[in-house]
Amino acid sequence: MSDTKRIRELIGENEMEIAIRLTIELLEKKTGSADLLDSAILQKSRWVEYKRKNISGLGEDKEINGIRAAVLNICRELDHRAEKGGSQPDSQQGYTPPPKPPQFDSPQTDSTQKQYTARCFFNNDPNSYFVTPTNQIVMVNPLTNFSTIVANRVASVNPNFAWVYLFPNSFFYNVDHAGAIWGVNAFGMPVEMGYVQYL
User: Are residues 71 and 124 in the same domain?
Assistant: First the structure.
């Protein structure tokens, strides 16, 4: 636990940039921690945004406190997984292939229902999006039935939201506790993009 202990010490010393960098480096070495790595990368982007605002005098304490709490939660989860005998490895490449999509022309079986925990619907989007038990978000083309991983489900540090729909480029949507998916329009105003149906 020396790695996570050092990260905690850095957070206590208010060395957030170094703490986030070490967290990302640690997670990049561990298999089966893709969800935590995504969350750490999100905190890095939040930290960069906070620094940018702070230069203008617009940075708020609650922002840095949220980043600090999120990185501590990542360390806590890493320690928890290590105590349980390590995380379940994604694979040797750090990748889990998406499960086969359900067949919509026949009733779902118990085994199919266990492959996905939720389905996401977006306004004016004909594709189907499913959340796997490993928190990957899979897009299924309804014409070809071909599936591909497009995003990840990560924990939200904002108590107003249940989780974050995080894309590889760090773009994200927030999902509230009622299952509504929220984005931001060109004017910076929140807009409901769709909803989540839990299976």
Answer: no
Task: Residue 185: count other Cβ atoms within 10 Å of its Cβ.
Answer: 9
What length does the chain have? 199
Within 10 angstroms of residue 72's Cβ, the number of other Cβ atoms is 17
- pLDDT digits 0-9 by tens, 129-167: 999 999 999 998 777 778 889 999 999 888 889 999 999
Instruction: Provide the angle, in degrees to the nearest 10, between the axes of the packed helices 16-29 and 34-55.
Output: 160
134, 96 in Cβ contact below 8 A? yes
30 HSE (CA, 13 A, CB side): 24
**Encoded amino acid at 143, one letter:** L
Residues with Cβ within 8 Å of 181's Cβ and at least 6 positions away in sequence, in order, are 120, 122, 165, 173, 174, 175, 192, 193, 194, 195, 196
Q: What's the CA gap between 108 and 175, in Å, rounded?
A: 25
- 102 inside domain: no
Torsion of CA 48, 51, 55, 60, to 10 degrees: 130
At residue 83, what are phi and psi to the nearest 5 degrees? -65, -30
Tell me how many domains the chain contains. Answer: 2
8 A C-beta contact, residue 172 and residue 42: yes
Is 180 domain-assigned? yes
> Against a cut of 0.85, is the pTM above it?
no
